[in-house]
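Dear colleague,

As promised, here are the two records you asked about, laid out in our usual form so they can be pasted straight into your sheet.

NAME FIELD: protein one
SEQUENCE, THEN STRUCTURE:
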Amino acid sequence: MNSVAPIHLRHYDPSDAPALLALFCDTVRRINFRDYTLEQIEAWAPADMPIEPWASRFEGKIAYVAQRGQSIAGFADMTSSGYLDRLFVSADFQRQGVARKLLRVMLQRAADLQLSEVTTEASITAKPFFLAESFVVVQKQTVTCRGVEFTNFLMRRSVS
């Protein structure tokens, strides 16, 4: 009988940073390219992105890593005020419930902190997922990353 290992969530450890950076860059290049130009992709996930600033963005945040077997399937991090900074799923684990499981733990943590809402800035690619998870668009935005403009969406969801 062929069975798939369950998705296991664990707390982020600083030693995860290099693997999560690799997952992030690979996912942006393989998934988000559908909605963004090559110039935008290269600004968002440059091949030479330094690890130190990447790793420092996890400091002081609520962060989880999703694993299936020995493979890292995704990750998410959120501030204690309810800003979901990053939620990324490996291109190899798309549409397997990883993002939903990561979001659920973040919403539970937000509830534990007695927050009224969670906000995020969703990419064009991620917007349908967040809409399906009861987020609403607050506003369409143009943001700049490494001198290149991008469209994303400020979104929010009540915690209840």
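NAME FIELD: protein two
SEQUENCE, THEN STRUCTURE:
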Amino acid sequence: MNATHLDDALREAFDSSAADRRVVVRQATDLAAVGKPEADRGVALSVDEIVDNLEDAPDGADLVDRWNWWLGALDLAYGGYQQFTVQARADDPELDT
């Protein structure tokens, strides 16, 4: 998984902040590194697959919500994807201390 290629593809496909792209790219590269999608579905995780699946998320969802929506679907189908969802954001008031 090429993080730069994924970031570029996400920037092109979605109106998103650099912080949101950064956290999704990090989660995606971690997910690809463990090989779970390949083990579960028989294909390695790719940039095109990520963008395609995120485009299927409900209209109006931001990038992080799209990522969590897709990972939720994978978790329902196969289990073990919850740890790759985004739990907090840089702009989350709970993070301001």
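A couple of things worth noting about protein two: The two ends are 34 Å apart (CA to CA). DSSP finds five helices and no strands in the chain.

Best,
R.
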